[in-house]
């Protein structure tokens, strides 16, 4: 039977990196974004949906016949409170509500290290910061990620939906700076982690870190490992190429000092 996965924010940075990596025989990726999506490649099993995740009608139609939702959509950086509230928080409510109404049993939410951005790196200890460390957001953006984790918990407790919140570290082709040597999640590991979120028989509600097997890791790998995630990459191989820099005091790095409400 065909498996259909809805990916919101599919034209964004992580959506673009995952699109080729989540291709599988017997799987259709339904890609949703308000931004233009590249047309299907020959043989690529995708359905393109142009629309906003904040629109309940769009989301109701997008969730039809879907087995799981990967919710990557929304602002991925700091923005005004009003925009953050409307797109990231209210928009995630719209996504969860549409998924519930359509009977979708599993939603994976893209949370972020910035939900816990004011956690001190020095508190990590040998096991790393637990994935469910209580929120210490560093921005309105971080608040929105903490809020969607809470929404996910509500939808699990009320409706039995499986909801996995992935506190993504820094997911780019390569780590951008010294801070990312601790927080990098390679695109391939990102795909491995999202596959684990989809494959686990009954994840319930859980929060996991989305990072690679970095030598300088500060985030606990345990919770994601329990899900079945086996990372293969380590940011350290890029260390020599990076400009010199220092580890930040706080997990959120520069987000802890960026002016609130101003796009960064
Ligand atoms: C995030 O949550 C952002 O979406 C991304 O653009 C990076 O800034 C990342 O965190 C990070 O902390 O490096």
TrEMBL record:
GO terms for molecular function: oxidoreductase activity. Residues 5-169 form the NAD-dependent epimerase/dehydratase domain. Keywords: NAD, Oxidoreductase. Gene3D superfamilies: NAD(P)-binding Rossmann-like Domain (3.40.50.720). Transmembrane segments: none annotated. Belongs to the NAD(P)-dependent epimerase/dehydratase family. Pfam families: Epimerase. This is NADP-dependent aldehyde dehydrogenase.
């Amino acid at each position: 039977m065909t498996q259909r996965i809805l990916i919101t924010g599919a034209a964004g940075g992580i959506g673009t990196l995952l699109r080729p990596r989540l291709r599988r025989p017997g799987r259709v990726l339904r890609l949703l974004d308000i931004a233009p999506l590249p047309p299907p490649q020959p043989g690529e099993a995708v359905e393109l949906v142009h629309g906003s995740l904040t629109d309940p009608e769009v989301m109701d139609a997008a969730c039809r016949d879907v087995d799981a939702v990967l919710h990557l959509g929304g602002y991925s950086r700091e923005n005004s409170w009003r925009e953050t509230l409307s797109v990231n928080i209210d928009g995630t409510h719209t996504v969860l509500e549409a998924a519930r109404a359509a009977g979708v049993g599993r939603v994976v939410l893209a949370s972020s290290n910035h939900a816990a951005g004011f956690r001190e790196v020095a508190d990590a200890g040998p096991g790393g910061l637990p994935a469910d460390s209580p929120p210490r957001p560093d921005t309105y953006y971080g608040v929105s990620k903490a809020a969607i984790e809470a929404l996910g918990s509500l939808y699990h407790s009320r409706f039995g939906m499986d909801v996995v919140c992935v506190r993504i570290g820094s997911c780019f082709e390569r780590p951008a700076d010294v801070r990312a040597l601790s927080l990098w999640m390679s695109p391939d590991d990102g795909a491995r982690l999202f596959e684990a979120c989809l494959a686990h028989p009954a994840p319930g509600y859980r929060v996991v870190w989305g990072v690679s097997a970095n030598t300088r890791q500060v985030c606990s790998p345990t919770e994601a490992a329990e899900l079945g995630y086996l990372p293969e990459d380590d940011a350290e191989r890029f260390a020599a190429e990076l400009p010199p820099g220092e580890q930040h005091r706080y997990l959120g790095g520069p987000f802890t000092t960026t002016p609130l409400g101003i796009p960064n």
